[in-house]
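Researcher: Please translate sequence to structure tokens.
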Amino acid sequence: MLLRLSLVILCLCLLSSPLSAQQLSGTVSWIYDGDTLRVEPFGKVRLLGIDTPESRDSDRDRYYRVNFGISSKRLRQIAHRAKQFNIKRVKGKRVQLRFDSETRDKYGRTLAYLYLPDGRLLNRLLLEKGLASVFRRYSFRQKTDFLAAEKAARLARLGLWQ
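Model: Translation complete:
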């Protein structure tokens, strides 16, 4: 009886543990854009801590124009490159998702760091290639590292920063 009760308590603890303490794996089945993918069986996953330009003109363009002087035409090119980069690197691949303190955005998408089969972090790779900028509005565990990766891409004049 005591063993059964202990097992029930252990299961309840595991089930109630926050996603931030977990690492889950899934398969990328669709690429929506540079920072949003579908990972089965979890659904839409928004790459945590980064932002890629939209494929169409959007209100977000103003942020890039005002703060970085990047034209709408350039943003559309980078949006296309970021999506193609993700298709080539992760579509159909088994990946690992790791979480931070926030696990969902206001649209209900899962927020995650996405690790490739070789262990590299896709979120950071997009920054290193200049295909994304750091999403500065919120705190997240890897923010300092992501800012350094973005700065290196800027200094090397890659992607967005050409």
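Researcher: Any highlights?
Model: The domain at 21-161 is CATH 2.40.50.90 (OB fold (Dihydrolipoamide Acetyltransferase, E2P)).
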